[in-house]
């Protein structure tokens, strides 16, 4: 297969982990006789500094023409600490999702046997956790009407039936491929938008009779994820709730540097780690590249190249078993490896298979 990949390194540790993702993709393509062409583009704070726009039109065109986007991270403290800033790096991420029509964010939450001790949860609670969070990406408060002055502010949480139906369809279809259990997360006891979500989910459920569908308020879901994460198989929810719950789910594994995600929909799919730009670690060679590398596995699997995805997952597990790890997950007294060294070890492992 011939891949045309848009690469958006972004800000902070983004460029460092991006290199490792590209190197691993090259190793897999070489092994399986795929060809790959890359086009690099700017986004986030880097793009604001250069052209004043966190997702410039040229970047959109590069993404739109690609088969897939390999994205890393955006964000910078100079914007975080300025509540009056009119342009922010994260607006570039929202613009990318909206302009590419990426309405579904797929975040797998799974644990690694060799890292169970790193989880903030007890091993007996977390050991069987393996679920997927499906978050609606282009509606809700993040895109609704907004207002702010010195005395009042609001964000409008609006959803339409077509927006809800299409993301619920993704949820039901993922459940059919897994353990046939779908949890719809909402706040239907308080929010009108959530009541519409629940109404439509109840209308659609009979079309998937093999799927056990249950409904859970978002606060209860947040608690259940900590008390019994193995309860969940596929979880589907709206944009704001999904943003919070997926970050909560990500730390179950022991490090935010371990989990990838995919954003899919009408246009070019985007594959990215779930963590942020961690600007404090920029240039220190300590960022964990595994989430970025596993996002490459998700990229191959999206194109139904399962063997290619499997070899990446095998290499990642081998690196963990051999204690080839960045400081955030290294065992006490273990050898020091940086971002570059971990990425190179994994690419070399793939080359030798």
Which percent band covers the strand fraction? 15-25%
| CATH fourth-tier homologous superfamily of the largest domain | Isopropylmalate Dehydrogenase
Q: What form results from the Cα inertia axes? A: globular
* End-to-end C-alpha gap: 20 Å
User: Rounded to an integer, what's the Rg over CA atoms?
Assistant: 20 Å
Please describe the biggest sheet, giving its number of strands, its sense, and whether it closes into a barrel.
Answer: 10 strands, mixed
Q: What is the spatial order of strands in the main beta sheet?
A: 2-1-3-12-11-4-5-10-8-9
The CATH class name of the largest domain reads Alpha Beta
Point out poorly predicted stretches: none
Structural class: alpha/beta
CATH topology-level name of the largest domain: Isopropylmalate Dehydrogenase
Number of strands: 12
Number of helices: 13
How many individual domains? 2
- State mean pLDDT (0 to 100 scale): 95
Order of helices and strands: EHEHHEHHEHEEEHEHEHEHEEHHH
Query: Can you give the helix content as a percent range?
Result: 40-55%
Second rung of CATH, namely the architecture of the largest domain? 3-Layer(aba) Sandwich
